[in-house]
Amino acid sequence: MLRYTLMRLGIFVGCLVAVWGLVYSGLAPRGLGDSNGLWIVLLALLLSAPISFVVLRKERDRASERIVQRVDRVKANLEANRNQEDVADDAARAQGQAQGQTS
């Protein structure tokens, strides 16, 4: 997951540098007044999102598989703990009933 995030951040930074260069060279329009920095960031976000979607498809699939595996492992651990609690509870009840019958 960290690898995907870093790759996505790298694409955004690359787009940010490219948009900054285009705006300050005059090839792309400037923002209004003091909003030029925000304009550059928004354009970079707008460009990097579809690029990331296409370029990082395989990495995104790998990351999602790892997440699914982790979730499945956590679910299995929770189920195992739940079963242990059930066994311990059943044993305690059986012992309590056995003591109640002998009294």
UniProtKB/TrEMBL annotation:
Domain of life assignment: Bacteria
InterPro entries membership: DUF4229
Transmembrane region(s): 35-56
Region described as Disordered: spans on this chain: 81-103
Keywords: Membrane, Transmembrane, Transmembrane helix
Amino acid composition bias (Low complexity), ranges on this chain: 93-103
Identification of the protein by name: DUF4229 domain-containing protein
